[in-house]
Amino acid sequence: MDENDKNLKELFAGFSDESVPFNFEVKIQNKIEARLIKKKENNELFLQISFAVIIAAIMSAVLYFLNFKYFGLQISSLKFLFADSINFTGKIKSMFSDSLSLTWLIIGLNVVLLIFAERLISEKLSRKEKE
Amino acid sequence: MKREEELILIERIKAGELNLFNTLIEMHSPKILSVVRGVVSNREDAEEVAQDVFVKAYFSIKSFRGECSFSTWLFRIAYNMSVSKTRLKKREHIPIEKTGNIPDNASLKEQENYMDRERQYKILNQIIGELDVSDRFLIISFYNHEKSIKEIAEITGMSESNVKVKLHRIKKRLNLLMGDKMEVCYG
C-alpha cells in the first residue's frame, strides 16, 4: 500500500457508517418469522395438492378395477353419444329423464353444495385465524 | 470472536440452535450496513437490503461450508443483493458522515486541514457516485473494510487478476478526478 493508497483509505474511512438502526435485529427476526410462516403455508398447500392427486389416482384405479371386474364398459361404446349430432340432445335428455337419474342428480347437486359450503366456511375460519 | 469460535457457533446454528443467529447479526450488522450504505442509493433502501442479507443468510446457512470466512460469505450475499437492488436504480447520493466539528481551540493550520478534508470528502462522494455499483462495492470493500484481493474475488466471483486490474483502474480514475476537481476547487 503506497502513500496514495493510505490517503484514499483515510478518506474512505470518513464514509464508514457502521451505526446499527434501532430495532434492526427485531426487523430481521420479523422477516424471518414471516418467511417461515409462508414456507409452512406453502408446504401445507403442497401436501394438500399431493393428497388430492393421490386420492384421485386411487379413485381412478378403483373405478377402472370395478369397470374391469363388473361392468366391462368400453370407451368405444360411448360413441353412440356422438354418432349423429341431430339426435344428440334427445339422447342426453333420455339419459336423465327417468326418476332414478333424477335422484342421483339431486344427490350430486347436494354434494357439490356441501363441498362449496365447506370450502367457504373453512376459508372464513382461516381468515379469522390469520387476523 | 475468533474464527474457530465463529465456526463452532455456525455449526450449532446449522444443527438447529437457530436462536444463536442473533449473535451473528450483532457481530456482522455494522460492517454489512456500512458496505451496503456505501453502495445502495438511499438509507432506507440500504437498511432494507442489509436486513434481507441476514434473512437470506439465515435460510441458506446450511450451504456455508467454511471455505471462506463468514464475513466474506455475508459480503457475497450483500454484493449480489446490492447489485440487483441498484440495477434499475441510478445512484442518487452517498451520505457523507460528518468528520466532527472543528474544536474551538484549533489552530489556523488545523482548521485549514479540516476544511481540506471536508472538500475531499465531497469530491470523493461525487466521484464514487459516478462509479457503477460493482466498482463501488469493490473500492469500498478494499479501502473501508480492508478486504484482500482474494476475498474480493470470492465475494464478486471475479478472478483475482480481474479484481486487481479493476482496482487499479478505479484508483487511477479516482486520483485523476480528485486531482482535477481539487484544482477546480482551489483554482
Short description:
The complex is a heterodimer of chains A (131) and B (187). With 131 residues, chain A is mainly alpha-helical.
Shape of chain B: globular
Q: CA-to-CA gap between the ends of chain B? A: 50 Å
**Average pLDDT reading of chain B:** 81
What is the number of helices of chain B? 8
Q: How far is the N terminus from the C terminus of chain A?
A: 59 Å
CATH topology of the largest domain in chain B: Rna Polymerase Sigma Factor, Chain: A
Radius of gyration of chain B: 19 Å
Cα-based radius of gyration of chain A, to the nearest Å: 32 Å
Major sheet of chain B: size, sense and barrel closure?
none
**Class based on secondary structure composition and strand pairing of chain A:** mainly alpha
Count of the separate structural domains of chain B: 2
Tell how many strands the DSSP assignment of chain B holds: 0
Comma- or semicolon-separated keywords:
heterodimer; A: 131 residues; mainly alpha; 2 domains; 4 helices; elongated; B: 187 residues; Rna Polymerase Sigma Factor, Chain: A; Arc Repressor Mutant, subunit A
Question: Can you tell me about this structure?
Answer:
The complex is a heterodimer of chains A (131) and B (187). Chain A has 2 domains: 18-73; 76-131. Helix content of chain A is 77%, strand content 0%. Chain A is built from 4 helices and no strands. Chain B folds into 2 domains: 3-86, RNA polymerase sigma factor, region 2, helix turn helix motif (Rna Polymerase Sigma Factor, Chain: A, Orthogonal Bundle); 108-186, Arc Repressor Mutant, subunit A (Orthogonal Bundle). Helices cover 72% and strands 0% of the residues of chain B. Chain B has 8 helices and no strands. Chain B has helices at 3-14, 21-39, 43-59, 70-86, 108-130, 133-143, 149-156, 160-186. In chain B, helix 7 (149-156) crosses helix 8 (160-186). The radius of gyration of chain B is 19 Å and the shape is globular. The N and C termini of chain B lie far apart (50 Å). Residues 93-99 of chain B have low confidence and may be disordered. The interface between A and B is medium-sized, with 23 and 36 residues.
